[in-house]
Amino acid sequence: MKLTYILLAVLAGAMLPVQAALNGKMGKVVGDPVYAALISFVVGSIALLAYTMATKTDLSTISQVGQAHWSVWLAGVLGGFYVACVIILAPKLGVALTFGLVVAGQLGISLIIDHYGLIGIPVHVLSWQRIAGILAIIGGVLLIRNF
Question: Judging by beta carbons within 10 Å of its beta carbon (0-12, 13-18, 19+), is residue 90 exposed, middle or buried?
Answer without folding.
Answer: buried
